[in-house]
Specification:
alpha+beta
Amino acid sequence: MGAYITSFGTALPKYRISQKDVVGFLLNNLNLSDEKKKETEIIFRASGISHRHSVLKDYTTSLGGFEFFPNTNNLEPFPGVSQRMQVYKKEALVLSLDAVKQCIGTDDPKNFTHLITVSCTGMYAPGLDFDLVKSLGLSHSIKRTAINFMGCYAAFNALKVAKDICTANAGSKVLIVCVELCSLHFQKNLDQEDTILANALFGDGAAAIVVEGNPSVHQSLSIETFYCDLMIEGEQDMTWSIGDFGFEMTLSSYVPDLVKKGIKSLITNLFSELKLNTSDISHFAIHPGGKKILEVIEQELDISKESNASAYTVLKNYGNMSSPTILFVLKSIFEKLEKHDKESKILGLAFGPGLTLESMLLKVC
């Protein structure tokens, strides 16, 4: 018995925003010094991101045309958590449904035995899982699990739960839905570089996948194994907390150094029982937490930028969408697989608060 990823679906909000648009939004609406303006422009240019997507139209418009933020100098009164959560409750469902419908196609929703929802950018109860059951016509007795507030690596935890479910009962069919509306949590206090980095990196998106005990399609990804490690010394270098004016991220410039320090040990432990090494890996699915993170991983694993192309493409076109991002990367790889890729192996990596390092091994079937 095993667990197999058999289908992917992804969705993006309709507002596609260039990095230039976001820089313009910041510089035109916040009272920044010339020095801070220059620092902001440099960080945005170095991000490796061309465009991101948002459920908010405001980032594409000028003062006077805002629908979410106040049409005032310095955006006061700045929206509080309640206002942001009202938008999340509406838009997270819309985006999730788009991803799920692409993922399941004509499959009968009643066939699903389990539903796992993942998000760290909004919460309410009854929650997204409840709304998906109603909107999709899933069984009212479906087993539901919500994975909340774990950040960019949370899809790995959803996959772990799905693997355990399918291994215990081969007849299981699990629907995983990851949705993040990061752009709702824009922060305007740019005194710290952390805030500028967060504003420069994160976008909105959703992804859905199906995990089955008995694969129902000719091409699937077998979920082989996982390994997680914690770098406690990085506990304060990446954090995610609820403030009065949205959720607030700490994202220090030391994160790439911490990832670099821990990545070899992580991979060694993942491969140890399987007697594998990096040369046995055909495809790399690395969470694009940032351009610098991708570069240090390539250096440490001695892999080329070309072999990591899917991560760069996702980063460039969508930015870091937190939990769905790794599924966007996997979908890109999955859609390019050919017959000769049978039995080839995919290494997946993601990182998040803690500092948490997650790894997994998938096999093409």
